[in-house]
Amino acid sequence: MTTESSYDFHAALRAILAQVAEAEAAGRDSQELQSARRDALRYQRQLAVLQAELERMLAQLDQPTSHSATRFAPSKRLACHHADSADAARLIDGDLPPWMIDCSEPH
Q: Are residues 50 and 1 in the same domain?
């Protein structure tokens, strides 16, 4: 059993659309086919909502809050090659924002 957050909507949508195409090719127009169409539309809407939410979250990561911008000024950013295991632990724990690790410069 999967949770909705880990459910593979793309795979479910592909399976449903394959069933719909198969039924349409066979000339069937049944309750099952209508149900499959409704399921496909529902999954498409859920995918659109999830994608919009993901894009919103990614945009927030690109815009640091004023609190974290003050706390982690650009001059305090760590170059990738200066980051150590403690920095990695802080990053994983959420104590160090991802944008604080600067990997744009080769070491």
A: yes
